[in-house]
Amino acid sequence: MRGTRIALTLLALASLVGMSAEVQAERVRAGLAEGELPFRIRSFSFPADGDSSRLLVIATLRADLLHWENVDSLRASLDINWQLHSGGRRHRENSQHLDFAHSPDMPRIEGQILASQEWVVAPGHYRMEFSGEDPGRHTGSILGLFGHSPQGRWSGRLEARDYDEGVVSDILLYTVGADSLSRPNPWASFIEGDPFLELFSVLRPPESGEGWFSLELDLLDSQGESIMQRRGGWKLGAEPYPLRLRLPLAGLDAGDYNIALKTGGPGLETEPVYADFQILPRAKSSDAQRLFERVQAHLLFTGNDFREWESQPPALRNEVLRREWENRDPDIREPGNPPREEFIRRYRRALRQYGGFRPGPLTDRGRMVILLGEPDEIIVDVLPENKESLIDAVKELHGIAEGGVPDASLERDLGRVGLGGPGSPGVESEAFEMWTYRLGGDPLLPETRLGLREVDLKLIFVDRSGTGEYSLEFSSEKFDF
User: Fold this and answer.
1) Best label site of 147, 300, 379, 455, fewest CB within 10 Å?
2) pTM, whole model, 2 decimals?
Protein backbone atom coordinates (compact mmCIF):
# COMPACT_ATOMS: atom_id res chain seq x y z
CA MET A 1 0.00 0.00 0.00
CA ARG A 2 3.09 2.25 -0.15
CA GLY A 3 2.43 5.50 -1.96
CA THR A 4 -1.34 5.13 -1.77
CA ARG A 5 -3.01 8.49 -1.22
CA ILE A 6 -6.03 8.37 1.07
CA ALA A 7 -9.15 9.83 -0.46
CA LEU A 8 -11.33 11.14 2.34
CA THR A 9 -14.05 12.69 0.26
CA LEU A 10 -16.35 10.92 2.62
CA LEU A 11 -19.64 12.65 2.06
CA ALA A 12 -22.16 13.52 -0.56
CA LEU A 13 -22.65 17.14 0.40
CA ALA A 14 -26.40 16.79 0.63
CA SER A 15 -28.53 13.80 1.46
CA LEU A 16 -31.67 13.14 3.44
CA VAL A 17 -30.34 10.78 6.07
CA GLY A 18 -32.15 9.46 9.14
CA MET A 19 -29.42 9.75 11.72
CA SER A 20 -28.53 11.02 15.14
CA ALA A 21 -27.25 10.08 18.65
CA GLU A 22 -24.10 10.92 20.49
CA VAL A 23 -20.75 9.59 19.34
CA GLN A 24 -18.88 8.80 22.53
CA ALA A 25 -15.53 8.22 20.80
CA GLU A 26 -12.71 10.23 22.35
CA ARG A 27 -11.69 13.50 20.73
CA VAL A 28 -14.84 13.84 18.62
CA ARG A 29 -16.02 17.43 19.01
CA ALA A 30 -19.72 18.31 19.00
CA GLY A 31 -21.94 21.35 19.11
CA LEU A 32 -25.39 22.77 18.44
CA ALA A 33 -25.74 25.98 16.44
CA GLU A 34 -27.56 28.99 17.88
CA GLY A 35 -30.35 30.69 15.94
CA GLU A 36 -33.43 29.58 14.00
CA LEU A 37 -31.55 26.72 12.31
CA PRO A 38 -30.09 24.42 15.01
CA PHE A 39 -27.39 22.70 12.97
CA ARG A 40 -25.60 19.91 14.80
CA ILE A 41 -21.84 19.83 14.34
CA ARG A 42 -19.45 16.84 14.54
CA SER A 43 -15.75 16.74 13.72
CA PHE A 44 -13.39 13.83 13.05
CA SER A 45 -9.62 13.66 12.66
CA PHE A 46 -7.71 11.33 10.33
CA PRO A 47 -4.03 11.08 9.35
CA ALA A 48 -3.07 12.46 5.95
CA ASP A 49 0.13 12.27 3.92
CA GLY A 50 3.34 13.47 5.52
CA ASP A 51 2.96 15.00 8.96
CA SER A 52 -0.48 16.44 8.24
CA SER A 53 -3.87 15.59 9.65
CA ARG A 54 -7.21 15.74 7.92
CA LEU A 55 -10.09 17.43 9.71
CA LEU A 56 -13.57 16.41 8.62
CA VAL A 57 -16.51 18.49 9.90
CA ILE A 58 -20.11 17.40 9.36
CA ALA A 59 -23.15 19.64 9.85
CA THR A 60 -26.67 18.22 9.82
CA LEU A 61 -30.07 19.86 10.08
CA ARG A 62 -33.61 18.55 10.27
CA ALA A 63 -34.97 18.78 6.74
CA ASP A 64 -38.40 20.01 7.81
CA LEU A 65 -36.85 23.21 9.21
CA LEU A 66 -36.07 24.46 5.69
CA HIS A 67 -38.41 26.30 3.35
CA TRP A 68 -39.43 23.90 0.54
CA GLU A 69 -40.84 25.24 -2.72
CA ASN A 70 -43.20 22.97 -4.62
CA VAL A 71 -42.31 23.28 -8.29
CA ASP A 72 -41.87 20.05 -10.29
CA SER A 73 -40.47 18.67 -7.04
CA LEU A 74 -39.98 19.99 -3.52
CA ARG A 75 -36.86 22.15 -3.56
CA ALA A 76 -34.83 23.88 -0.86
CA SER A 77 -31.37 25.38 -0.54
CA LEU A 78 -28.75 26.37 2.03
CA ASP A 79 -25.91 28.88 2.00
CA ILE A 80 -23.09 27.69 4.25
CA ASN A 81 -19.84 29.31 5.31
CA TRP A 82 -16.95 27.53 7.05
CA GLN A 83 -14.01 29.40 8.60
CA LEU A 84 -11.02 27.77 10.30
CA HIS A 85 -8.93 29.97 12.60
CA SER A 86 -5.45 29.37 13.98
CA GLY A 87 -3.39 31.61 16.24
CA GLY A 88 -6.06 34.28 16.23
CA ARG A 89 -6.07 34.53 12.42
CA ARG A 90 -8.34 33.11 9.75
CA HIS A 91 -6.57 30.07 8.36
CA ARG A 92 -9.04 28.69 5.81
CA GLU A 93 -12.49 29.68 4.51
CA ASN A 94 -14.98 28.07 2.19
CA SER A 95 -18.55 28.93 1.17
CA GLN A 96 -21.10 26.51 -0.27
CA HIS A 97 -24.51 26.83 -1.88
CA LEU A 98 -26.39 23.55 -1.57
CA ASP A 99 -29.59 22.64 -3.43
CA PHE A 100 -31.90 19.81 -2.39
CA ALA A 101 -34.80 18.08 -4.10
CA HIS A 102 -37.49 15.88 -2.58
CA SER A 103 -40.35 13.91 -4.09
CA PRO A 104 -43.69 15.79 -3.89
CA ASP A 105 -45.32 12.40 -3.22
CA MET A 106 -43.87 12.64 0.32
CA PRO A 107 -45.26 15.94 1.64
CA ARG A 108 -43.95 15.41 5.19
CA ILE A 109 -40.22 15.97 4.90
CA GLU A 110 -38.24 14.16 7.57
CA GLY A 111 -34.64 13.10 7.96
CA GLN A 112 -31.50 15.19 7.94
CA ILE A 113 -29.83 17.57 5.52
CA LEU A 114 -26.10 16.92 5.56
CA ALA A 115 -23.11 19.08 4.59
CA SER A 116 -19.38 18.68 5.16
CA GLN A 117 -16.02 20.38 4.94
CA GLU A 118 -12.48 18.95 4.97
CA TRP A 119 -9.15 20.58 5.69
CA VAL A 120 -5.61 19.14 5.58
CA VAL A 121 -3.74 20.94 8.35
CA ALA A 122 -0.85 20.58 10.77
CA PRO A 123 -1.74 18.77 14.03
CA GLY A 124 -3.04 21.08 16.73
CA HIS A 125 -6.10 22.93 17.98
CA TYR A 126 -8.18 25.20 15.78
CA ARG A 127 -11.30 27.30 16.14
CA MET A 128 -14.05 26.91 13.57
CA GLU A 129 -16.83 29.37 12.81
CA PHE A 130 -19.83 27.97 10.98
CA SER A 131 -22.93 29.68 9.63
CA GLY A 132 -25.85 28.36 7.61
CA GLU A 133 -28.71 30.33 6.09
CA ASP A 134 -31.95 29.39 4.34
CA PRO A 135 -32.15 31.88 1.43
CA GLY A 136 -35.60 30.62 0.40
CA ARG A 137 -37.36 32.19 3.38
CA HIS A 138 -37.57 35.75 4.69
CA THR A 139 -38.84 36.40 8.21
CA GLY A 140 -39.37 39.37 10.50
CA SER A 141 -39.98 41.87 7.69
CA ILE A 142 -42.23 44.94 7.97
CA LEU A 143 -43.79 45.88 4.65
CA GLY A 144 -41.08 43.81 2.98
CA LEU A 145 -38.27 45.67 4.76
CA PHE A 146 -35.76 44.78 7.49
CA GLY A 147 -36.37 41.03 7.27
CA HIS A 148 -33.77 38.28 7.35
CA SER A 149 -33.37 34.67 6.33
CA PRO A 150 -33.32 32.04 9.10
CA GLN A 151 -29.76 31.32 10.22
CA GLY A 152 -27.74 29.09 12.48
CA ARG A 153 -24.27 29.88 13.85
CA TRP A 154 -21.70 27.84 15.74
CA SER A 155 -18.20 28.54 17.00
CA GLY A 156 -15.99 26.03 18.77
CA ARG A 157 -12.62 24.31 19.02
CA LEU A 158 -11.53 21.39 16.84
CA GLU A 159 -8.52 19.11 17.24
CA ALA A 160 -6.38 17.78 14.41
CA ARG A 161 -4.64 14.87 16.08
CA ASP A 162 -0.92 14.13 15.90
CA TYR A 163 -0.33 10.69 14.37
CA ASP A 164 3.50 10.61 14.43
CA GLU A 165 3.63 7.71 16.86
CA GLY A 166 1.41 5.47 14.79
CA VAL A 167 -2.18 5.17 16.01
CA VAL A 168 -5.70 4.46 14.83
CA SER A 169 -7.78 7.52 13.99
CA ASP A 170 -11.28 8.51 15.05
CA ILE A 171 -14.03 6.21 13.82
CA LEU A 172 -16.78 7.39 11.49
CA LEU A 173 -19.81 5.14 11.06
CA TYR A 174 -22.02 4.80 8.00
CA THR A 175 -25.55 3.56 7.44
CA VAL A 176 -25.87 1.10 4.57
CA GLY A 177 -29.28 1.43 2.94
CA ALA A 178 -31.40 -1.11 1.12
CA ASP A 179 -29.82 0.25 -2.09
CA SER A 180 -26.41 -0.85 -0.71
CA LEU A 181 -25.21 2.76 -0.72
CA SER A 182 -23.27 3.99 2.32
CA ARG A 183 -24.34 7.25 3.93
CA PRO A 184 -22.39 8.91 6.78
CA ASN A 185 -23.98 8.50 10.17
CA PRO A 186 -21.83 10.77 12.38
CA TRP A 187 -24.04 10.33 15.46
CA ALA A 188 -24.02 6.53 15.27
CA SER A 189 -27.76 5.98 15.40
CA PHE A 190 -29.24 3.04 13.51
CA ILE A 191 -32.82 1.84 13.10
CA GLU A 192 -34.10 -1.71 13.52
CA GLY A 193 -34.09 -3.20 10.05
CA ASP A 194 -30.92 -1.45 8.84
CA PRO A 195 -28.96 -4.28 7.20
CA PHE A 196 -25.40 -3.16 7.83
CA LEU A 197 -23.12 -0.82 9.73
CA GLU A 198 -20.02 0.40 7.97
CA LEU A 199 -16.95 1.56 9.87
CA PHE A 200 -14.23 3.87 8.58
CA SER A 201 -10.94 4.61 10.31
CA VAL A 202 -7.30 5.15 9.29
CA LEU A 203 -4.19 3.46 10.68
CA ARG A 204 -0.99 5.49 10.69
CA PRO A 205 1.99 3.12 11.10
CA PRO A 206 4.99 4.35 13.08
CA GLU A 207 7.81 5.72 10.94
CA SER A 208 9.93 2.64 11.55
CA GLY A 209 7.14 0.13 11.29
CA GLU A 210 6.94 -2.01 8.17
CA GLY A 211 5.83 -5.61 7.85
CA TRP A 212 2.77 -7.55 8.98
CA PHE A 213 0.14 -5.89 11.11
CA SER A 214 -2.94 -7.28 12.81
CA LEU A 215 -6.45 -5.95 13.30
CA GLU A 216 -8.85 -6.96 16.05
CA LEU A 217 -12.45 -5.77 16.12
CA ASP A 218 -14.95 -6.68 18.84
CA LEU A 219 -18.64 -5.81 18.81
CA LEU A 220 -19.86 -5.62 22.42
CA ASP A 221 -23.37 -5.37 23.83
CA SER A 222 -24.40 -3.02 26.66
CA GLN A 223 -23.14 -5.55 29.24
CA GLY A 224 -19.68 -5.69 27.66
CA GLU A 225 -20.19 -9.17 26.22
CA SER A 226 -18.58 -9.85 22.85
CA ILE A 227 -21.20 -10.79 20.27
CA MET A 228 -19.13 -10.50 17.08
CA GLN A 229 -15.40 -10.59 16.34
CA ARG A 230 -13.29 -9.87 13.28
CA ARG A 231 -9.56 -10.52 13.05
CA GLY A 232 -7.11 -10.22 10.20
CA GLY A 233 -3.64 -9.21 9.13
CA TRP A 234 -1.97 -7.57 6.17
CA LYS A 235 1.36 -6.27 4.96
CA LEU A 236 1.72 -2.56 5.45
CA GLY A 237 4.17 0.09 4.35
CA ALA A 238 4.80 3.50 5.87
CA GLU A 239 1.75 5.25 4.38
CA PRO A 240 -1.57 5.71 6.20
CA TYR A 241 -3.83 2.73 5.69
CA PRO A 242 -7.62 3.18 5.40
CA LEU A 243 -9.75 0.67 7.31
CA ARG A 244 -13.26 0.19 5.97
CA LEU A 245 -15.29 -2.67 7.43
CA ARG A 246 -18.94 -3.66 7.07
CA LEU A 247 -20.77 -5.41 9.92
CA PRO A 248 -24.23 -7.02 9.68
CA LEU A 249 -26.92 -5.66 12.01
CA ALA A 250 -29.51 -8.35 11.30
CA GLY A 251 -30.60 -10.11 14.46
CA LEU A 252 -29.41 -7.37 16.83
CA ASP A 253 -32.12 -6.04 19.13
CA ALA A 254 -32.68 -2.38 19.85
CA GLY A 255 -30.14 -1.22 22.43
CA ASP A 256 -26.64 0.13 23.01
CA TYR A 257 -23.52 -1.40 21.47
CA ASN A 258 -19.81 -0.68 21.38
CA ILE A 259 -17.09 -1.30 18.80
CA ALA A 260 -13.52 -1.84 20.03
CA LEU A 261 -10.87 -1.56 17.32
CA LYS A 262 -7.24 -2.49 18.03
CA THR A 263 -4.19 -2.99 15.82
CA GLY A 264 -0.78 -4.46 16.56
CA GLY A 265 2.49 -5.38 14.91
CA PRO A 266 6.21 -4.58 14.91
CA GLY A 267 6.69 -1.29 16.70
CA LEU A 268 2.93 -0.76 16.92
CA GLU A 269 0.90 -1.49 20.03
CA THR A 270 -2.13 0.79 20.06
CA GLU A 271 -4.76 1.30 22.70
CA PRO A 272 -8.21 0.24 21.49
CA VAL A 273 -10.31 2.93 19.82
CA TYR A 274 -13.98 2.78 20.74
CA ALA A 275 -17.17 3.86 19.00
CA ASP A 276 -20.56 3.58 20.67
CA PHE A 277 -23.71 3.21 18.61
CA GLN A 278 -27.39 2.60 19.18
CA ILE A 279 -30.02 0.55 17.42
CA LEU A 280 -33.38 2.23 17.92
CA PRO A 281 -36.93 0.95 17.43
CA ARG A 282 -38.51 2.27 14.27
CA ALA A 283 -40.34 5.41 15.37
CA LYS A 284 -43.99 6.12 14.74
CA SER A 285 -44.51 9.29 12.72
CA SER A 286 -48.22 10.06 13.09
CA ASP A 287 -49.39 13.53 14.13
CA ALA A 288 -50.69 12.06 17.39
CA GLN A 289 -47.30 10.52 18.20
CA ARG A 290 -45.47 13.76 17.41
CA LEU A 291 -47.80 15.69 19.71
CA PHE A 292 -47.31 13.14 22.49
CA GLU A 293 -43.53 13.40 22.24
CA ARG A 294 -43.46 17.19 22.01
CA VAL A 295 -45.54 17.64 25.17
CA GLN A 296 -43.16 15.33 27.04
CA ALA A 297 -40.14 17.25 25.77
CA HIS A 298 -41.58 20.60 26.90
CA LEU A 299 -42.09 19.10 30.34
CA LEU A 300 -38.67 17.45 30.65
CA PHE A 301 -36.34 19.88 28.85
CA THR A 302 -35.78 23.62 28.80
CA GLY A 303 -33.65 26.03 26.79
CA ASN A 304 -30.80 24.43 24.88
CA ASP A 305 -31.76 20.96 26.10
CA PHE A 306 -35.10 21.31 24.32
CA ARG A 307 -33.43 22.69 21.18
CA GLU A 308 -31.00 19.77 21.25
CA TRP A 309 -33.89 17.31 21.53
CA GLU A 310 -35.89 19.03 18.80
CA SER A 311 -32.98 18.98 16.33
CA GLN A 312 -32.88 15.18 16.25
CA PRO A 313 -34.74 12.79 13.92
CA PRO A 314 -37.89 10.94 15.07
CA ALA A 315 -36.40 7.64 16.21
CA LEU A 316 -33.82 9.27 18.42
CA ARG A 317 -36.20 11.89 19.86
CA ASN A 318 -38.40 9.07 21.11
CA GLU A 319 -35.39 7.19 22.52
CA VAL A 320 -34.10 10.27 24.36
CA LEU A 321 -37.50 10.71 26.01
CA ARG A 322 -37.61 7.06 27.03
CA ARG A 323 -34.20 7.28 28.69
CA GLU A 324 -35.02 10.55 30.41
CA TRP A 325 -38.07 8.96 32.01
CA GLU A 326 -35.98 5.96 33.07
CA ASN A 327 -33.57 8.29 34.86
CA ARG A 328 -36.39 9.81 36.90
CA ASP A 329 -36.66 8.36 40.38
CA PRO A 330 -39.98 6.49 40.61
CA ASP A 331 -39.96 6.97 44.39
CA ILE A 332 -40.95 10.62 44.06
CA ARG A 333 -44.49 9.36 43.58
CA GLU A 334 -46.44 6.66 45.37
CA PRO A 335 -45.29 3.06 44.63
CA GLY A 336 -46.72 1.63 41.44
CA ASN A 337 -47.30 5.05 39.90
CA PRO A 338 -43.97 6.19 38.37
CA PRO A 339 -43.76 9.63 36.73
CA ARG A 340 -44.16 8.46 33.13
CA GLU A 341 -47.28 6.43 33.89
CA GLU A 342 -48.78 9.39 35.74
CA PHE A 343 -47.86 11.65 32.81
CA ILE A 344 -49.71 9.36 30.38
CA ARG A 345 -52.79 9.37 32.61
CA ARG A 346 -52.82 13.17 32.83
CA TYR A 347 -52.03 13.55 29.14
CA ARG A 348 -55.01 11.41 28.17
CA ARG A 349 -57.30 13.42 30.42
CA ALA A 350 -56.09 16.69 28.89
CA LEU A 351 -56.52 15.26 25.40
CA ARG A 352 -60.03 14.04 26.15
CA GLN A 353 -61.40 16.99 28.10
CA TYR A 354 -59.76 20.20 26.88
CA GLY A 355 -59.36 19.79 23.11
CA GLY A 356 -60.79 22.45 20.79
CA PHE A 357 -59.03 24.47 18.15
CA ARG A 358 -55.82 23.10 19.64
CA PRO A 359 -55.12 19.64 21.08
CA GLY A 360 -56.00 19.49 24.76
CA PRO A 361 -52.41 19.04 26.08
CA LEU A 362 -51.42 22.31 24.35
CA THR A 363 -54.20 24.36 25.97
CA ASP A 364 -53.57 26.22 29.21
CA ARG A 365 -55.96 24.06 31.21
CA GLY A 366 -54.54 20.86 29.73
CA ARG A 367 -50.96 21.92 30.48
CA MET A 368 -51.87 22.76 34.07
CA VAL A 369 -53.49 19.35 34.59
CA ILE A 370 -50.28 17.73 33.35
CA LEU A 371 -48.06 19.92 35.54
CA LEU A 372 -50.02 19.92 38.80
CA GLY A 373 -52.74 17.30 38.45
CA GLU A 374 -56.46 17.71 39.12
CA PRO A 375 -57.44 20.91 40.96
CA ASP A 376 -59.04 20.52 44.38
CA GLU A 377 -61.84 22.92 43.45
CA ILE A 378 -63.22 24.34 40.20
CA ILE A 379 -65.71 27.24 40.08
CA VAL A 380 -67.29 27.60 36.63
CA ASP A 381 -69.36 30.48 35.27
CA VAL A 382 -70.18 29.73 31.64
CA LEU A 383 -72.92 32.35 31.17
CA PRO A 384 -72.21 35.23 33.53
CA GLU A 385 -74.81 38.00 33.50
CA ASN A 386 -72.10 40.65 33.72
CA LYS A 387 -68.42 41.02 34.54
CA GLU A 388 -69.04 41.39 38.27
CA SER A 389 -68.69 37.65 38.85
CA LEU A 390 -65.24 37.66 37.23
CA ILE A 391 -64.28 40.77 39.21
CA ASP A 392 -65.28 38.99 42.42
CA ALA A 393 -63.21 35.95 41.40
CA VAL A 394 -60.15 38.13 40.76
CA LYS A 395 -60.58 39.80 44.14
CA GLU A 396 -60.81 36.40 45.80
CA LEU A 397 -57.66 35.31 43.99
CA HIS A 398 -55.89 38.34 45.50
CA GLY A 399 -57.30 37.59 48.96
CA ILE A 400 -59.55 40.63 49.01
CA ALA A 401 -62.62 38.53 49.78
CA GLU A 402 -60.91 37.57 53.04
CA GLY A 403 -60.27 41.12 54.15
CA GLY A 404 -57.10 41.86 52.24
CA VAL A 405 -56.09 45.37 51.20
CA PRO A 406 -56.18 46.27 47.46
CA ASP A 407 -52.77 46.81 45.90
CA ALA A 408 -51.34 47.75 42.53
CA SER A 409 -51.30 44.16 41.26
CA LEU A 410 -55.02 43.84 41.94
CA GLU A 411 -55.72 47.10 40.13
CA ARG A 412 -53.76 45.86 37.12
CA ASP A 413 -55.67 42.59 37.04
CA LEU A 414 -59.04 44.33 37.40
CA GLY A 415 -58.08 46.51 34.45
CA ARG A 416 -57.81 43.33 32.36
CA VAL A 417 -61.35 42.16 33.08
CA GLY A 418 -63.70 42.58 30.13
CA LEU A 419 -61.15 42.46 27.30
CA GLY A 420 -62.93 39.84 25.24
CA GLY A 421 -62.07 39.64 21.55
CA PRO A 422 -64.33 39.91 18.46
CA GLY A 423 -65.83 36.47 19.07
CA SER A 424 -66.73 37.18 22.67
CA PRO A 425 -70.42 37.48 23.57
CA GLY A 426 -69.59 40.81 25.14
CA VAL A 427 -67.12 42.52 27.42
CA GLU A 428 -69.69 42.39 30.20
CA SER A 429 -69.97 38.59 30.24
CA GLU A 430 -66.71 36.66 29.83
CA ALA A 431 -66.98 32.99 30.76
CA PHE A 432 -64.31 31.80 33.19
CA GLU A 433 -63.15 28.98 35.43
CA MET A 434 -61.33 29.45 38.74
CA TRP A 435 -59.18 26.52 39.85
CA THR A 436 -57.83 26.05 43.37
CA TYR A 437 -54.87 23.80 44.22
CA ARG A 438 -54.42 23.10 47.94
CA LEU A 439 -50.76 23.31 48.99
CA GLY A 440 -49.68 23.76 45.36
CA GLY A 441 -51.34 20.67 43.93
CA ASP A 442 -49.62 17.42 42.99
CA PRO A 443 -46.56 18.30 40.85
CA LEU A 444 -45.65 15.65 38.30
CA LEU A 445 -41.90 16.32 38.66
CA PRO A 446 -39.89 17.99 41.45
CA GLU A 447 -38.94 20.92 39.23
CA THR A 448 -42.60 21.77 38.61
CA ARG A 449 -43.28 22.32 42.33
CA LEU A 450 -44.07 25.95 43.05
CA GLY A 451 -42.72 27.94 45.98
CA LEU A 452 -46.01 29.33 47.26
CA ARG A 453 -46.47 32.45 49.35
CA GLU A 454 -50.00 31.39 50.25
CA VAL A 455 -51.48 28.05 51.24
CA ASP A 456 -53.53 27.76 48.06
CA LEU A 457 -52.72 28.34 44.41
CA LYS A 458 -55.63 29.97 42.56
CA LEU A 459 -55.82 30.23 38.78
CA ILE A 460 -58.45 31.88 36.59
CA PHE A 461 -58.91 30.77 32.97
CA VAL A 462 -60.98 33.11 30.78
CA ASP A 463 -62.74 32.45 27.47
CA ARG A 464 -61.68 35.72 25.84
CA SER A 465 -62.90 34.83 22.34
CA GLY A 466 -66.16 33.12 23.23
CA THR A 467 -65.04 29.97 21.40
CA GLY A 468 -64.32 27.77 24.41
CA GLU A 469 -60.56 28.38 24.17
CA TYR A 470 -59.81 29.27 27.80
CA SER A 471 -56.49 30.96 28.53
CA LEU A 472 -54.77 31.42 31.88
CA GLU A 473 -55.23 35.12 32.63
CA PHE A 474 -54.87 35.46 36.41
CA SER A 475 -52.79 33.62 38.99
CA SER A 476 -52.25 34.09 42.73
CA GLU A 477 -48.57 33.21 42.23
CA LYS A 478 -46.03 34.27 39.62
CA PHE A 479 -44.44 31.29 37.90
CA ASP A 480 -43.02 30.33 34.52
CA PHE A 481 -45.88 28.81 32.58
Assistant:
1) 455
2) 0.73
